[in-house]
Amino acid sequence: MSISPLNARRQDIRDRFKRYFTVLYTPFLTNGEIDEEGLRHNVETTIALPGVGGLSVHSIHQEFWTLTQTERYQVTEIVLDTVAGRVPTIVGVSDTTVQNVVDQARHAGECGADAVMIWPPYYGPKTADGIQKFYETVAARIDCGFFVYSTTLTELGFYLTPSMVKTLLPIDNLVGVQNSTMDFSAYAAVMEAVGGSISVATSLEEYFLLGKMVYPDIAPDFMMGSSRPLLVQNAEHPRCGRFIDHALAGDMQQASAQLREIVSIAQKLQSRYFAKGFHHLALSKVLSAHLGLKGGDLRPPGGALDPDELRECHEIMRQAKLIA
After folding, report:
1. How is 76-129 classified by DSSP, letter by letter?
2. How far apart are CA 220 and CA 175, in angstroms?
């Protein structure tokens, strides 16, 4: 397969976006307020991690659904001010209402976001025609390029199928899709349906490597919404940094060797929860502290962390030489 002639927005994404676009965690103070100093610290720490080439803001990892609209503006402003153009940044602007999405997207663009992410509305009845109209309406009212989200994780509750993504291609400012289906055949299907026209990104190394090996002419050079760089590596063992370096250099044998390590660790710390349809944010947020990230408790309605589960995961991290 080959890349179709791209408009300027779509070509810009392919040209500039490289390596991991990693998630951020929102630190909260004991009174529940956003910890601005902690958030700035997390930005600096995250962009310095091996393999990181950009940031993904207001993903599910950042607990955006627990924030008010004003707080979401605040987080966007803090992050983009701290980044100061050093790496590209994608800002999630998802909401159940068109106007809130439009307001968040316009604000993100004004603050310097390189693109925005728009999920299908995550609550209420939805149809394919309704989702199409939703995206068309939003796109006509914003200037920035946007990604859509295709996932089978039950926490979202709507699967944007390859054929549905294809019907969105006439929207000029659609620049890509993040595929998080946890299914190689579904990933391949969306790549074949739209990969020649827009960037088909994934958050997981095993799918990224498949794309580079099977679809080398159209697979993008970046992963999007990735959290494993915060969990499975440290300065002494930069597994994700080595993986992406080898993969982009075309050394698939060495990339595969790193992938085996990454997947083995991530399966125990993260992927087993994906298989149940959800992100275990309370656990991931605490485990990322080994890199010096500021976390704290989840805001309600986020669940509490099981102490036995944490002890088990810390032992896994010790065996992987991530903590002492």
Report:
1. HHHHHHHHTTSS-EEEE---SSHHHHHHHHHHHHHHT-SEEEEPPPSSS---HH
2. 12
Q: Which of 163, 212, 156 is nearest to 182 (CA)?
A: 156
Handedness of CA 217, 54, 70, 278 (dihedral sign): positive
**Stated pTM of the model:** 0.94
Going by C-alpha positions, the residue among 285, 262, 212, 174 that lies closest to residue 18 is 212
Total residues belonging to the chain: 324
CB 196 within 8 Å of CB 218: yes
229 alpha-carbon distance from chain centroid = 11
Burial label for 126, CB within 10 Å (0-12, 13-18, 19+), is: middle
CATH architecture of the domain covering 8-230: Alpha-Beta Barrel (3.20)
Cα 133 from Cα 127, distance rounded (Å): 10
- Alpha carbon separation from 251 to 16, 184, 203, 246, 271 (Å, rounded): 21, 21, 20, 5, 25
Q: Where are the domains of the chain?
A: 8-230
pLDDT digits (tens, 9 = 90+) for 24-76: 999 999 888 999 999 999 999 999 999 999 999 988 888 888 899 999 999 99
